Please model this.
Amino acid sequence: MTALPTIHGEVDTGFGPVADAFRRNFDRHGEIGAAVAVYAGDRPVVDLWAGHRDRARTLAWERDTMAPVFSSTKGIAAFVLAHAVSRGLLDYEAPVARYWPEFGSRGKESITVRQLIDHQAGLPELDRVVRLRDFGDLDALAEILAAQKPLWRPGTRHGYHPITVGLYQGELIRRVDPSHRTLGRMFAEEFATPLGLDFFIGLPESESLDRIATLSATTGLDILRYERDVPLRIGVQMYARRGSTYRALNSPRLGAAARATRREYLGVEHPGTGGVGTARALAQVYGAAAAQTGALPIDERVLDLLATAETADDVPAEDLILLTRSRYHLGFRKSRGSFQFGSDRRAYGTTGLGGSVGFADPGTGLGFGYTPNRLGVAILDDARARNLHRAMVRCAQA
Model:
């Protein structure tokens, strides 16, 4: 029997149940190493870490340990677009082709920025092989992206764009920024540096890989032991290596998720899946957004849009790629169906492959962040994250 690790960090009075849930994740859910953080506005009320940053359990997870967060990066990218909207550089309801004329081909001329970032554009995969090494040539990549033909009539359905949405967002930011910065650089200069965030979209050479937790895939009997939310319909496609979900999750081809800690993966920018950082950084950004502290370079008007409870249900709920009911709003996820988070419908955030999550809960003014290194198999609602954020909401409402 493996001894439970020591839980490090601090918890404010009233948030003890979050620490209890964190400890149970190690006892019952096979946690190897992880961190969880909650911010009330700009104040940390939960800041915990425990376990090991390697599968062999020889290296302790430390206060500043970072982890790849995969699609939890999408929320950070959405904040960058919200910043561009606040500055008048973008309009959510404007056609993408207004800012990127070459995009308006092959039936894409009317796709709005909102439809693109809300996964309604029908562009979840590319019609040619693109690999990680191709991300360095942004002009060539932009030509490929602009030449794509939608898989469905834009604005009529939605289907998760696992990787491509970040590439489109990145090019859109590069087009509208007066200095033509990349999305990762804009985030670093407008968010990360002013707020002191340990989060990167495009890891600098100056950052040591020793700080980054290695990832461990969940396989074999561990799936039966620890996973209760296995997406069977998606699993069939992944096993058969065919189907719309399989193609979207492998377009472009980024390699095995467990190898996402290598410099080749983290050093290039891919704003849909390539972020690496701490749970504390996620919670800090989302806490500032939830409570509208003024710390973020985003207007209150735009933050109010992100937090609206009455999102437009202008497409059927069934997600053509994730094969479940989903709701997207201005680049974020909203609670829907079996995937519920936050205290009410105003909550917004994104989840990542393996279990990471960050979200804002305007109803309580809290921001939440969670980063593990055991890669769970649930697509949206990892049991470990669910245990933690439900405990957080219960504490806030007590």
About this structure: The chain has a mean pLDDT of 94. Residues 230 and 378 are 5 Å apart (CA to CA).
